[in-house]
Amino acid sequence: MIYDAAIIGAGPAGIFAAAELARQNKKVVIIDKGRLIKERVCPILAGKVKACVNCSSCAVVSGWGGAGSASDGKLTLTTGFGGNLEEYIGREELERMIKYVDDNFVKFGADPNYYEADGKLAREIICSGAKAGLKVLPARIRHIGTDASREVLNNMYEDLNSKCDILMNTQVRDILIVQNAACGVILDNGEVIRAEKILAVPGREGAAWLEQVVNKLNLKIASMPVDIGVRVEVPDSVCEVLTREFYEVKTLYNSKTFDDRCRTFCMNPSGFVVSEFNKSHNLVTVNGHSLKNKKSENTNFAVLVTKNFTQPFNDPIGYATHIAKLANMLAGGGILVQRLADLKSGRRSNAARISRGMVKPTLAAEAGDLSLVLPHRYIIDIIEFLDALNEILPGVNHGDTLLYGVEIKLYSLRLELQNNLAVPNIKNLYMAGDGAGVSRGIIQAAASGVVAARAMLSE
Known about the structure:
It is built from 12 helices and 21 strands. The protein has helices at residues 12-22, 85-89, 91-107, 119-131, 146-161, 207-217, 236-246, 316-330, 340-345, 351-356, 376-389, 442-458; strands at residues 3-8, 28-31, 74-76, 134-136, 141-143, 165-167, 172-178, 181-187, 192-200, 221-223, 226-235, 251-254, 261-268, 272-278, 283-289, 298-307, 336-339, 366-367, 402-409, 413-415, 429-431.
């Protein structure tokens, strides 16, 4: 059997691409190394273990729905966030695509309500932030929630299961290229699956695999910046005035000392800090999410520092993963946590000081010293950023604020693709989603899958 299309990756890009192709009665196979939604159970979140046990397929980042299914389930419905798709299709088309994708999420069970701060509050916060050097970026956000997100994505699976072949727990080793045209995929067991067209959308977790494929095919890439930082956890009371209206406060900041670009990312009101295992690099990193039906008393968000590297260095992924592995080493294989006051004082946190603090940790992590992990430059950037954030989030730079490390975003590979996301010089091969550097989030990843699928249908 020769499929019309083989899709590598069952994240938002893969799911929406498959749905688009199936509507036109195309024979489609989706292949993913992870498990189905109902089988994606993290032992930590299930209460079976206290620290990451390095599952062969991490339930947090791999499987049906991709990393987004175990994240906070936030859909950012405003252009300017979530990736680079606008550069390929233009703003007007991106706006239409975001609405199209969002409507489908709602159709499959996402909460129809969304967050958008009123004009007066937004202007006040923007002005307050500007005084501290912060650029506040209001956005329209639909919050599905990690638990509800699983239900929505499972509904999409049930809809597609009768229309496509879906191969989970299946690793793709390589893309089959014959006479400069993609014509199939090679699985780890050596089996070849033939297809007229191939769409590679391995997501953030598959960025390293995609880089190997790209290097083998000698495709042109642009080295992307790498984001490295910490997950911040504070009492809900610090953020609730803004999160009640904005849900997520997105800010940009240029640090005073080093003029590095810093940003907030993935804010989770009444949420939980979680760890995730990256099998490709054999390391554990930190993340966060919020649930619809279960709440904590804390809000968490990431503070990330973006760094661009220049020649001769060309391995930003290697740099970021090296730092993450160092944190794992000091934490006995897991995640480090430190009070902000201890970081500023140059001392290691211990369990006793953390337990006396105002913030009860939502993740069992090893008390330690992040200054032994992150370069001095990053430490200064993070401290300065938190001081600036205190202008719009009073109390965020309190001594009891918890910092978990490290959090990294491996968006350091961006392919040179055509506007329809086809790979130049190789026929019938398309790439999209986070792993290809096209998107940085659920909405634009899904939209990029639709763009690629429509291009496949038109050729």
